[in-house]
Write a structure and sequence with these properties.
Radius of gyration: 21 Å
Helix content: 25-40%
CATH architecture of the largest domain: 2-Layer Sandwich
Strand content: 15-25%
CATH topology of the largest domain: D-amino Acid Aminotransferase, Chain A, domain 1
Distance between the termini: 42 Å
Number of domains: 3
Largest sheet: 5 strands, antiparallel
Shape: globular
CATH superfamily of the largest domain: ATP-grasp fold, B domain
């Protein structure tokens, strides 16, 4: 007796969108490593511009926030975008995490809860501040300082100010920033120019790998566009404890990806510089196996 043929239904392809910006339609090298590893697991990856109104976000099994490196120019719109996408499909990291982490005032909240952070004076939007008096009050008059906005990306709109602000550039920059938002004033950290930053990268709540980002001679900024070199490194128990404490206070949901940037204070203190939960470079190249580790987590999240 001939049995009827059973129809073969092709398995649905897992589709993942890497949310990026219009200036980066071709994925950067770090994200391309991740995309290759994701594709090796049988999923599709497509870069999509976050503020492109024609994208059907609901057509994807997962939207992974990777390189929307213009969000700081329209932060409110970006937060609303994340909330909307989260209502259509899976979004990582979550919309709540994105809202919390896109304004550096989160550092003030972490400091209030006992996380050692870079000393910071927070100047609210609209405030009129005597910059020289602020420096004197903080004991920073004879030191270089940094003035930057609380909503910013990398080193955008950051000014390194000479000791005492002799030309008034720091005061003018602070006034410009507070005209539209909250500003941060910090002492310049000399170790940035020599040791750089130590970055601990986490995948689904577990430590994946550790790298050190060192700037070139004469520079203090540790982003790749300023010529910084990144190499594999290790962390001390104290550095690991600070990173774990910061992550534990970041919210109820363990982020799929996270990067904790640490810096050494003048006396060797371990200070949190940034807790990157929105669109951090993951520095996969210096850490063999990390791309595959993250890819497995990404595909698992897409498939629920």
């Amino acid at each position: 007796m001939e049995h009827p043929r059973r129809a073969i239904v092709p398995a649905a392809v897992t589709r993942i969108a890497f949310a990026t910006c219009a200036e980066l339609l071709v994925l950067d090298p770090d994200d391309e490593l991740l995309a290759e590893a994701v594709r090796a697991l049988g999923a599709e990856v497509e870069p999509k511009v976050w503020d492109d109104g024609d994208v059907d976000w609901g057509a994807y099994d997962l939207v992974l926030v990777r390189s929307p490196w213009d969000y700081h120019l329209r932060r409110d719109a970006f937060v609303h975008w994340a909330e909307r996408v989260a209502g259509l499909t899976r979004l990582r990291n979550s919309a709540a995490t994105i809202a919390w982490n896109t304004d550096k005032v989160y550092l003030r909240r972490l400091a209030e809860q006992g996380v050692p952070t870079v000393p910071t004076a927070w100047i609210e939007a609209g405030a009129t501040t005597d910059f020289a008096a602020l420096l004197a009050d903080r004991g920073w008059s004879g030191r270089e300082t940094i003035v930057k906005p609380s909503i910013g990306l990398g080193s955008s709109n950051l000014l390194r100010v000479a000791p005492g602000d002799p030309d008034g550039a720091g005061a003018r920059h602070l006034a410009d920033l507070t005209a539209s938002g909250t500003a941060m004033v910090q002492p310049f950290i000399p170790s940035l120019a020599t040791e750089g930053e130590l970055s601990l990268v986490w995948c689904e709540g577990a430590l994946s790998h550790i790298v050190r980002k060192r700037p070139p001679a004469g520079e203090f900024r540790v982003q790749p566009e300023f010529g910084a070199v990144t190499t594999a490194d290790t962390a001390t128990d104290e550095q690991l404890a600070v990173a774990e404490r910061a992550l534990a206070l970041a919210g109820d949901e363990a982020p799929l990806y996270a990067r904790v940037d640490l810096v050494a204070g003048p006396a060797g203190e371990v200070w949190l510089m940034e807790l990157e939960l929105v669109e951090p470079t993951l520095y996969l190249a210096p850490a063999p196996g990390s791309a595959e580790r993250f890819a497995a987590a990404v595909v698992a999240a897409a498939r629920g």
